[in-house]
Amino acid sequence: MRPTPLLTLFDHEMRENARPDGPGVRVERAGDVVRQVGAADDWNGVVWSSPVLGPARADAAIAEQIAYFTSLRHGEFEWKLYAHDRPADLPDRLRAAGFVPEPPETLLVAPVAGLPTAVVLPEGVELRTVTDAAGVALMGRAHEMAFGTDWSRLGHQVLARLREDPDSFVGVVAMAGDEPVSSARMELCPGTGFAGLWGGGTVAPWRGKGIYRALIAHRARIAAGRGYRHLMVDATDQSAPILRRLGFSELSTTTPYVYRPAR
């Protein structure tokens, strides 16, 4: 995959010069990689590797990161690999070192100015902004029902962000009466032109009714109001077709390679 100007900008702003994604974490340049380091409940891992990384240096960089993160005694860390990363056989080298790939996602990006911002919801559903622990709990209920995965680590991260850096975070829950039926969040990256969309899971009985689109429009309107130029999404196969219809284009694919130290 040959990098486009937009992909080159994304790599520069969001990976090589990554900002910490929450309070209490730090981003470090360590030789040929950039990594984020935090507590056990934070996201820990490699976000960027040098585009001139060759085979010998790649093996050394992998070994160095395994040694470093293992010394922290966290349960796992991730090497966030993109399809255009070098060397071309980096996925094989990561697997040989003990990393396990998780399902790939598609990196989709859209200009904020071209996205719809009209929020159209089914009758009986309203959006509620998340501002406190009670709202985070509602997000968690919707997330676990929609995705079937545990919310505890994400809940910790969201609560920390609301407490200490609320201006860089937008959380929203779609409510049908007293029941949360969908939730989503947006992470704003000051100093860049990008805002990231995350979540967007809707519980099964409410799918296909336009709630996912409404959550995109709601966050696009906020991003536009704050001067962001692009929205980015790591999209699953379920959400990618909807996002493409709304104006998102594929820049790359990304695969989490996860390393879990032996205990």
UniProtKB/TrEMBL annotation:
The keyword Secreted does not apply. Residues 125-263 form the N-acetyltransferase domain. The keyword Transferase applies. Pfam families: Acetyltransf_1 (PF00583). Coiled coil: none annotated. Signal peptide: none annotated. Gene3D superfamilies: 3.40.630.30. Keywords: Transferase. One of its GO terms (molecular function) is acyltransferase activity, transferring groups other than amino-acyl groups. InterPro entries: Acyl_CoA_acyltransferase (IPR016181), GNAT_dom (IPR000182). This is N-acetyltransferase. It comes from Streptomyces fulvorobeus. The lineage of its organism: Bacteria, Bacillati, Actinomycetota, Actinomycetes, Kitasatosporales.
